[in-house]
């Protein structure tokens, strides 16, 4: 094997790309789940003082953040209802960055990174190694 083709491949390898998408889902989904789990465990303490950017109450804003960060992250990791599950995640990170951190990179860099990654992942799709791919292709195999 030539080293120059290993280091500088001429065409994209689809398997590597799909493994990259899977690893991105596993990494960023798992990391966001930890934030949602921490909010769920601290629900009683946080519900009175959680930021309320939509005027629906701190308790309901916290519930929406937990839904976006914990439950939608599980669907994101598995690639199940991928784009639908990403909408609350993107909205949660946009609210965290623009409202909770005032759109400041110095204080809200983590929310900004999540936001950019999730928007890019939304545009690319879940990839081959996902429940959505399996569901859409399972009917084709039976025929």
Automatic annotation (TrEMBL):
Pfam families per record: DoxX (PF07681)
Alphabetically ordered keywords of this record: Cell membrane, Membrane, Transmembrane, Transmembrane helix
Principal location class: membrane
Transmembrane listed as a keyword: yes
InterPro entries: DoxX (IPR032808), DoxX-like_oxidoreductase (IPR051907)
Membrane topology of the entry: Multi-pass membrane protein
GO cellular component, one term: plasma membrane
Transmembrane segments: 17-38, 58-80, 111-131
Localization terms from the record: Cell membrane
Family: Belongs to the DoxX family.
Protein name: DoxX
